[in-house]
Every structure is written in C-alpha cells, then in structure tokens.
Amino acid sequence: MGAKKIFSVDSRLCVGCKQCELVCSLTKTGTFNPHKARIRVTRNQVKGNYVPGICYHCKQPKCQQACPEDALKRDIETGAVVLNESLCSGCRACVVACPFGAVQVDPDGNILKCDLCGGDPTCVKYCSERPENSSPLMANPEGAKALQYVEPHQVTYTRRYAQL
Amino acid sequence: MYGYGEILRIDLSSGDISTEPIPSQVIRKYVGGEGINDWLLWQHFTKVDPKIDPKGPDNVLIAGLGPLGGTATGLGSKMKFTFKGPAWNMFGDSVAGGTFGTAMRYAGYDHIVVTGRADKPVYIWIDDDKVEIRDASAHWGKGVKEAVKGIRDELGDTDMSVACIGQAGENLVSYASVTVTEERSAGRTGAGCVFGSKNLKAIAARGSKGISVSDPKGYLEATDEIYHRLKSDPTHWGFRKNGTLGVVGFYDRIGGNAYRNNQFSMVPPEKIKVMLARWFADNMKTHDFACSTGCTMGCCQICEVKGHESPLAERYKGLTGEGPEYFTVATFGMGCDIPDYAAITHFHHACNDYGMDLGEIGGAVPFLMELWERGIIDEEDTKRWCGEPIRFEWGNVEAVEKTIQSVGLQNDRLGEILKDGLVKAAQNIMEEKDVPVQQYVIHGKGGATFHEEIRSFPIWALNFAVASRGCDHLKGLNMMDKGFRKDISKAWFGSEKAGEGYTPDLKGKAAARSENHTTAINITGVCVFRTALNPLNIDLDLMARAYTALTGIELNGEELYLAGERTYNLEKAFNSRLGLRREDDTLCDRWMKEPIKEGPGKGMKAEDWFDDLLDEYYEYHGWDKKTSLQTRKKLEALDMVDVLEVLENEGAATE
C-alpha cells in the first residue's frame, strides 16, 4: 500500500522562499535551520527557478528495502514511511537508495526523514499562496501553492511518484 | 542566547579574526539588524575620527541581519551593510535581500565588522566556525556573475551565498553597489566602494548551525497571525503578483511618475501601456520569485527575453534572470524615455554586474539627456569623453549602455566625470563647458535618486530631503499621502489630514514618525515592503510578539518603536558629528522652484511648504528647529546619554 494522502508538487509555483524548510526544522528540532529540514528546496541553476524536494512515501519504498536495521516502517494511520530513530545506525543506505534524494543527513550525521507530521504536514500549511495566473506558463487559481497534500487521484502536476 | 548570533570581527590589515557576543544591554536598546549595525558604527567612530575619507582604510564595513531575519515570519529577511557612505560623505547604509544575510546568521554571526585594508585583493570565506581571508586575485577585474561563479567553483559549492562587487567597486566609483546572490543589490550610498577600498572582492558564507528558538509554538502562532493579516489586506494578491512593478500604473493614476529627467510628471499613455506590470507579466515573466529566505509574498519575478516581445527585444534576446523593479523602470524607462522592458531589464542586470547604484546612474543619464536636448553638450563632447560621438537623445539605448560601461570600467573621461555622483558630475561639466547646469540636476541632500514625482507628495519630498543616508525614500517608507491612507493618519495623529493627497497638512509629522516606524521594522530584520506600507495591518505589536517568541526577551510594540527611534537618532547623531545641519536638508531647484506642469498635482512645488514642514518634522523628532541638531532633552529621554556626551563635546547637540 501507499500513503493515503500524498504530496503534490508543482514547482512552477515555488517562489524559493524556503518557508517550508524553516517551519519543518522548527517543528522537528525547535530551531530555524535548513540543514535540519526534511524538505529541501533546490535552485535550478539553468532556469533560475526552484524545486521543492520531498519524500513521496512510495508504494514500494526503496529506502525501506535498503535499510539493514529494519528502521523504516509504514505508519498504518497516515501511510507515511517513518524512521524509527532508535533502530537507525546511520549507515545511509536509505539516502543512497532514494530515487528522489529525499532522505537527508544533518550536519551531525543524523538521518532526516519526513513523517508527514502525523498526517498534517507543516510545510504544506505554510507554503506561499500564489496569485491567480501567477505567470503565463500556468493558469493557476488564486491561492494555489507549490506544495499540496491530497488524495493520490487528485495529484495534478507531480508525476505520480507514489505509484512507484 | 535564543534567536541571536555573535559579532564577527575581521581586520583586513592585520588578518586578525575574532568573535564576541552582542552585549545584552545593546540588544535591549537597539534590538538588532540596522540598530546594532549603527551601534557598531558609532563605537568604531568613537575611536576613529568620523571625518576620515570614506574611501580610506579607516572606514568600517558592517554587515548585519536582525533577529527575525532567516526565521519563518513569512515577511522575508533583509540584511544591511552599514558604513560611512562614500557616495555623499555621510552616514551610509544599504539593504539587500538574497541569501547572504541568512547564511551568515545560520553560521552563527548576526553582524560582521570588517576594518582595515588588505594589501592585495582578497575575499572572506565563512563556513560556520571556519573564517578565512583568501586570495581574490583570480576574481579581481571581473563582473559579479563571473566572479561569483569563480568563487563558488573554488569553494566547491554551487549554492554558496556570496556578497560580491563588480568592477565599479574595484575602481572606487563612489556609488558602487554590492550584489548579493543571486541577483539582489545593496545599491545605495556606496557599500561596493567601501568593499573596493578595502581590497575586498566578496564575502562568501555557508552556515549549518541555525537559529535557536525560545518558544516554537508561540512563534508559529505569531506566524499564523501574520499570515492571516497579510491575507486580509485587499492589495496583497496584486503585490504578490507584480511586486514593485505595480507602482507604474498606480503612479500613473496619481501623477507620481517622473518623465524625462522629471521635466514632466505624466508619461504619454502609449508608453505607460508597455511599462505596466501587466505587460511584463504577459510577455516576459516566467516565475514568481522570493528574493530572500522566508518571504512568502514572493513579489519578485524571473523573466526571459525571447526576442520578439518588444521593439528592442531582439537586441537583448536570450537574457534571463531576475526581472527589474519599479526603481529601474522609473530611471531608465521613464527618466531616459526607453519604455521597453527588454532594455530596462538589460540595464538592471548590467548595473548589478558592474555593481553600481541604479539610483545614482539612473539620475545621471537622464541629466545628460536633458543637457543634450538643451544643446549644452553635443557629439564633440561625447567624442572627447568616450571616443565615440554618442548621441544622448531621449530613448537612445546606446547612450545608456555606454554610460554604464564607462562608469563601471573607468576607462574614459565619461566614466571619470560620473565617478563621484551626479552633483559632482554637474560640477565637472560646468567647469568644462562654462555653462550653469545645476538647475537640471535632480537631487536631495546632495545625492541623486531614482526619479519619481515628489512635489505633489510632501511626505516623500521631505523624506528625500532629510533621510539619514541622503536622498532616499526607504528610510521613512510609507504610503500615507500617496495611498490616501486617512486611516493610518487617524490612528497615528488623531486626524485624517496626513492621509489627504496633494496638501502639506501634517506631512512633516508623518515624515518623522514614518522614519521611526520604518527603522523599527528594519531592526528586526524583515522586509519593509508590506510592513511599512501598511502599518495598521502588520503592526509593531505583532512583530514584537514574534520577536519575544523567538528570543524569550519581553518586548511590546511601543518598545520596538522606541528602539527604532533610538536607532534613527544614532544615524542623525553620526551626521551631526560630520557637520550636517538644517541647511543640508534640502532639495534641488527643480523640485523646490519649478511647479508641476500637469496631472493631479499641477502647480505644486516644494518651496511653498518646505520650511514649515521641516519645522514640523524637527519638532516631532524633538530636534532643534533652527539647527536641526538633537536636544539634550530628547537624547536623555531615549536613554542615549553616551551619545549626547560625544555630541556635546563636539558642539553637535543643543540644550
């Protein structure tokens, strides 16, 4: 099974404010530190736009398959693939295995893994709302966000990563 | 200490590097950002004579970001460089978005103090606790883009945050700017010149320590309230979409644009049409973009010139990157009469790459164009100045391109004439031509700025004449009379009069209070664009609430306002030590004496009300009307006795 609701990412609407990284690190660590965020926004060096990189809690998670300690488990309630830190040895097999580069390592060597904040992801809540027809490249409605948390069939722009 | 980092000191002469905590009593008085930058500047110049040459090794360069910068208020992070300004030889500071300020703070430093002068070109690399002064000879002589790429390659990090100067700063152009990655500019008053004078090409920073938070839950609740308030402002969607470009159409309606060196205040409709934000969004914009960390407004834009959008698009085909701001449209689009976004964007990028202030250069070219129109300069002059008979006719892009290049590279007489700003340039030309030209110079308090019609909006006119850093609209940013905000006037003064357009009523008080208020926002480290323009929406109490949740230090809106006032008084005191008095708070002849020719403010000119409003302005600040100097009473009330002592010793304060 996959997650019940998943992230839908429309990078065309991402303004690169990194508010998602800030609220993520605040929620998870009590500090503002993008290096401790579970979500990472990267800049496309060629086009100059930004792309949020986030865990899609895949149907068949490569991170989970790679973990020698069995520290990654799917949460029955939310469908999230969650890291049990007490079992994690920090070997980084999951980091290497993830096809989206969505498992992070913080400066102290700890593995950072999105857990969907228990079913109500903070990053989505604080993602910048954009004005109607934000640019000629899209015809978005007023209030559209780069990050959404929706039922798998409602995913509009992200390729259906969760189907993997 | 929650929410705060340290002060990092770097002496480029000796190579000494040290850190120290910010004293807690300084935090209490000045909060952070601009406030603590100013305190550091003041401390430096208690040991060093403030009358030193700002281009010499005794000047100091301070970079700082306030405590709410780099956190998640949703209001962005604006850093400041503070120094003695080489552009106009008075207090100088300059603000930028970009990634550098936050990287500096995540590395653990809220303020960087650079003193001395390196004996060869260097750059500073900050990587958490590791701080190095490195050889920059490979990057010297290069434009910002190329230099930043070189530095990033050298450090092996393509996302490294860098504050960097171009050739203009290296060549000590007095109004050189610092460009902060990716393309934000600390433009005004010559921060880039101070970099250059210290042989400092750039400061690169990377930080992984982060910022500690006293009350994460309380902080997010304050953020929730900010989000809620932002959305309750009916203008917020337009601002998110168009940013400052929205000002073009708004000013067209209220007679706020300035055309052809401000000889006119209405731009012909067919030209306005292609400079509207709408035109830019429809034809060139590709994405919305937030210039700094934590800004959910995202008022900036990324654009692309495909080559067919406008008459000049072919010439600038392939240009990509950040779009221009109203500032650039006003100076080149309207001031030089080049109503073409492809060209305007190119000039914006060129100024940022050579690293020069758009305001000063944007004042210079329209001035030269007016001289051309009046027959004061001709092809013989331009041939003598730059080797080519460039025609400074209205709308000639070649003249703008050549001027920017000459100023940046300083390789001909044209660049030399303009090297020390517009007022000096006019003197240079008068000496050469023996014809008076001062009456065509648009300036206030000795400096040039971007062009907009201020004669019909006395608050802004006063701001331009009195700002601590010289001719400037940001020190006391407000929309009270321009936006007809009777509600703000009522809340601040108990009367709606400051919110009435095209009258001088209460505008002196409004200018003074706006300065204190805007400074109060600046010391926190967030962007002033939403907060200062709509102070009833995001009020100082709410900012103080976020601050208290972050730092654990009790603070209310009133105390934050006081800290802002204290900070602004420190800037004033710095200028008083340099000998600046009431007679220096002034505007150019065109704004003072020439009435507006057309539009809603027709017939208005500054001299009709200027002196009365200055009186009102000084009075509200608690300063002496006759000299403009600060009074003992005021400085004692602000708990600034140490500052008062210095001023009294130098005869720069009154009873």
Can you characterise this structure?
The complex is a heterodimer of chains A (164) and B (655). Chain A is of the alpha+beta class and 164 residues long. Chain A has a single domain (6-163), classed as 2-Layer Sandwich (Alpha-Beta Plaits), CATH 3.30.70.20. Helix content of chain A is 16%, strand content 17%. Chain A is built from four helices and nine strands; from the N terminus they run E-H-E-E-E-H-E-E-H-E-E-H-E. Chain A has helices at residues 19-29, 62-66, 93-97, 122-126; strands at residues 6-9, 31-32, 40-43, 50-53, 72-74, 81-83, 104-105, 111-112, 147-150. Chain A has a two-stranded antiparallel sheet with strand order 1-9. In chain A, strands 3-4 form a two-stranded antiparallel sheet. A two-stranded antiparallel ribbon of chain A has the order 5-6. In chain A, a hairpin with a 6-residue loop joins strand 5 and strand 6 (81-83). The radius of gyration of chain A is 16 Å and the shape is globular. Chain B has 655 residues and is an alpha+beta fold. Chain B folds into three domains: 6-206, Aldehyde Ferredoxin Oxidoreductase,  A, domain 1 (4-Layer Sandwich), CATH 3.60.9.10; 240-440, Aldehyde Ferredoxin Oxidoreductase Protein, subunit A, domain 2 (Orthogonal Bundle), CATH 1.10.569.10; 458-536 and 556-654, Aldehyde Ferredoxin Oxidoreductase Protein, subunit A, domain 3 (Orthogonal Bundle). Chain B is 42% helix and 13% strand. Chain B has 28 helices and 18 strands. In chain B, strand 7 (122-127) and strand 8 (130-135) form a beta hairpin. In chain B, helix 19 (458-466) crosses helix 21 (507-522), helix 21 (507-522) packs across helix 24 (557-577) and helix 23 crosses helix 24 (557-577). The interface between A and B is large, with 40 and 46 residues.
